[in-house]
Write a sequence for this structure.
């Protein structure tokens, strides 16, 4: 599930590792659910506990890593947290 938005400012988040990844190198900075995500002058998002959030740059990187072409207009993305390990 992807919720696309427009522009985002810096935020703090956890780190995620791919399952079976032995390099221990964080790939994306996930924001755990149960928190408020600042979307800059646009708004705030009350992120439910069952979800995780990626900011604009991590959303672009995730799309690129999955061989998709980012539009450049997304301010972030929201995903169900069930298969994502945030540390």
């Amino acid at each position: 599930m992807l919720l696309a938005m427009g522009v985002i400012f810096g935020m703090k988040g956890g780190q995620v590792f791919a399952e079976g990844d032995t390099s221990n190198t964080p790939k994306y900075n996930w924001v755990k659910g149960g928190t408020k995500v600042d979307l800059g002058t646009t708004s705030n998002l009350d992120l439910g506990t069952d979800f995780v959030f990626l900011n604009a740059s991590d959303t672009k990187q995730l799309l690129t890593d999955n061989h998709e072409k980012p539009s450049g207009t997304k301010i972030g993305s929201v995903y169900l947290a069930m298969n994502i390990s945030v540390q």
